[in-house]
Amino acid sequence: MRVGCGYDSHRWAAKRKLILGGVEIPHEFGLTGHSDADALTHAICDALLGAISEGDIGFQFPDSDPAYSGISSLKLLSKILEMVDKKGFAIDYIDSTVIMERPKLMPYIPDMKSKIAGVLKMPSDRINIKAKTNEGMGFVGRQEGVAVFAVALVKENQD
């Protein structure tokens, strides 16, 4: 078994959609980014890439490449699943924490889990998403952006 850790953060931006875990969440702001700026999916991508020793999302899908401009992060996650499979691993479990002051995410978490599970071809009960605030501290507390941590556990395929 291997473990990978992922982290991502994005600034708030006007005139952008807020997408987390592939789910569009109604909010007055979205997140800045070259892709759809889905910080949750990006952190999960980084955790999976770390677990299979393949760098990070910026290395695999550089923001200097116009092919990734505005791309759905779920498409990137799908490509990473192919890499996991090719390296001889299977995803066992994902745990993540989204840190933002608002909006409240609890109503959207089941849909996020379902979308991520669908892309990763795994049961949604093997994906955990927690939502926390930063109690008014730091850049998250000042509502300048969001931060996400993720951990992925992968195991070698037993062929």
Which key phrases capture this entry?
159 residues; alpha+beta; 60s Ribosomal Protein L30, Chain: A; five-stranded mixed β-sheet; two-stranded antiparallel sheet; 5 helices; 7 strands; 30% helix; 2-C-methyl-D-erythritol 2,4-cyclodiphosphate synthase activity; MECDP_synthase_CS; EC 4.6.1.12; MECDP_synthase_sf; MECDP_synthase
Describe the protein.
The protein has 5 helices and 7 strands; from the N terminus they run ββββαααβαβαβ. The chain has 159 residues and is an alpha+beta fold. The protein has one domain: 2-Layer Sandwich (60s Ribosomal Protein L30, Chain: A). The strands form 2 sheets. It has a 5-stranded mixed sheet with strand order 4-1-7-5-6. Helix 4 links the parallel strand 5 and strand 6. The radius of gyration is 15 Å and the shape is globular. The model has no long low-confidence stretch (mean pLDDT 96).
Quick synopsis:
The record marks 34, 133 as: Transition state stabilizer. The chain is of the alpha+beta class.
